[in-house]
Design goal:
Helices cover 45% and strands 18% of the residues. The chain is α+β, with helices and mostly antiparallel strands.
Length: 218
């Protein structure tokens, strides 16, 4: 088996694509578990074999390196020179600014699985309420018809959109799965998930709903 060496002095950090993969599905595969564990950390961990084995829950050093290489080839992880801290501010303080940066139009909201919005940018309150309720209804439809979409048509995405005559999304509904919680981003126009703010958004939600919940349980 080909041997790989880690670069010293780097810290592991998900890319926007990695953060999206981590929260885009409730499926529990090894890469997704690794990325979620990475986003549960209070600080970006040092890139070492020991850290990789802990985050991946893999004892075999070669298998841990192979999984890291797999994630790197797919553009899901990156190495940064300086450690970064998890967002610690209250969600209601940081969400509006983060949301505004991941939409071309600046119109985006984050709703929970009950159809209530947690924060929004660019939408009037009444519109945000209606879109949040719609996101919950779409989730029910998707769950009911997931067998058709996944098994018969091979469509694994959980996102839905209302499109114009050219097939361009006018408003899309993008689920974010954080443990047992299901959130939805409702975005008008083109989403900008390739921004660092999307990583911060995923990190903040995972810290709040997974890490702190686990700490409280212990």
């Amino acid at each position: 088996m080909e041997r790989f060496d880690l670069i010293n002095g780097l810290y592991l950090y998900p890319t926007p694509a990695g953060a999206y993969y981590a929260v885009s599905s409730p499926e529990n595969d090894k890469p997704r578990r690794f990325l979620i564990r990475l986003l549960q950390q209070e600080q970006t961990p040092a890139l070492t074999i020991a850290q990789l084995q802990t985050l991946m829950e893999i004892d075999d050093e070669d298998k841990a390196l192979q999984l890291l290489l797999y994630c790197q080839k797919l553009g899901w992880v990156q190495g940064v020179d300086t450690p970064l801290q998890a967002p610690h501010s209250a969600l209601e303080e940081i969400l509006p600014d983060l949301l505004g940066k991941i939409s071309e139009s600046g119109k985006v909201l984050l709703a929970d699985d009950q159809g209530f919005y947690l924060a929004c940018s660019g939408f009037p309150h009444e519109v945000a309420e209606e879109l949040s309720a719609l996101s919950a209804e779409l989730a029910t439809v998707h769950k009911r018809r997931s067998g058709l979409l996944i098994n018969n048509m091979g469509i694994s995405s959980h996102a839905w959109a209302i499109v114009d005559p050219f097939g361009n999304s006018q408003i899309g509904f993008w689920p974010m799965f954080v443990g047992k919680h299901r959130f939805v981003l409702a975005i008008t126009g083109v989403p900008h998930f390739n921004q660092a703010e999307f990583v911060t958004l995923a990190w903040a939600l995972i810290t709040r709903y997974l890490t702190k919940a686990a700490d409280a349980a212990n």
